[in-house]
């Protein structure tokens, strides 16, 4: 009976691990109108094959004007563009007639492929993001044995959910890539001031404890 009870938690852990081991995008939400760095986390689910290729399909129903790829050591990437039915207008007023529709990373060798029990991460920068909605990045993960994991389910409860990015919240101005420098500087200043006060506070506490200890010693001797 004890063996059966002990096996139940192990089974639950194994099931949870398998269910959560899917290609995902981080962050999973971002403010409208801004730019965002997207990191695709790719775990290897096969016990006998390595992941050798990753294809990420960008939504054309919400085309992204600017897409750039961060080079990944040991992998080669390829970018494909699609002609837009309705051209975009960039912040300079220029017409954008094509948008990136696919980014493919391919391992240069077996050494750089993602082996069993491993994961890897691939980065792109995109923007400006639309005013609202969900961006779905359907993804194909190809293994060394020729099998393909199709992360294309738009329903998150599906067996192979596609990575999704929720766009909502306060709109960020076009061309805004990062948090305000003034806000960041203010936060750094507050942290520095707090850090500088810490030694003083500790010194005062130490003195109070020492004085209290000395007073207690005198009282004991008198008693």
UniProtKB/TrEMBL annotation:
Transmembrane segments: 200-219
Region (Disordered): 173-193
Organism per entry: Nocardioides luteus
UniProt keyword terms in alphabetical order: Membrane, Signal, Transmembrane, Transmembrane helix
Domain YncI copper-binding: 22-167
Presence of keyword Nucleotide-binding: no
Signal peptide: 1-21
Pfam families assigned: DUF1775
Name of this protein: YncI copper-binding domain-containing protein
């Amino acid at each position: 009976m004890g063996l059966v009870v002990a096996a139940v938690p192990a089974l639950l852990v194994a099931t949870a691990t398998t269910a959560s081991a899917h290609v995902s995008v981080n962050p999973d939400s971002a403010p409208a109108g801004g730019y965002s760095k997207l990191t695709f986390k790719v775990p290897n689910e096969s016990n006998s094959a390595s992941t050798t290729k990753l294809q990420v399909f960008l939504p054309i129903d919400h085309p992204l004007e600017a897409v750039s790829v961060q080079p990944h050591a040991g992998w080669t990437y390829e970018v494909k563009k699609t002609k837009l039915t309705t051209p975009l207008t960039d912040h300079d007023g220029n017409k954008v007639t094509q948008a990136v529709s696919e980014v493919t990373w391919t391992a240069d060798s077996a050494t750089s492929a993602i082996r069993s029990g491993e994961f890897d991460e691939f980065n792109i920068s995109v923007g400006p993001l639309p005013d609202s909605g969900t961006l779905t990045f359907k993804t194909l993960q190809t293994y060394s044995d020729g099998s393909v994991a199709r992360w294309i389910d738009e329903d998150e409860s599906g067996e192979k959910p596609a990575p999704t990015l929720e766009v909502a919240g306060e709109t960020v101005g076009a061309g805004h890539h990062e948090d305000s420098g003034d806000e960041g500087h203010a936060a750094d200043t507050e942290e520095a001031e707090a850090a500088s006060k810490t030694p003083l506070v500790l010194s005062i506490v130490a003195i109070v404890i020492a004085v209290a200890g000395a007073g207690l010693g005198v009282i004991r001797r008198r008693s």
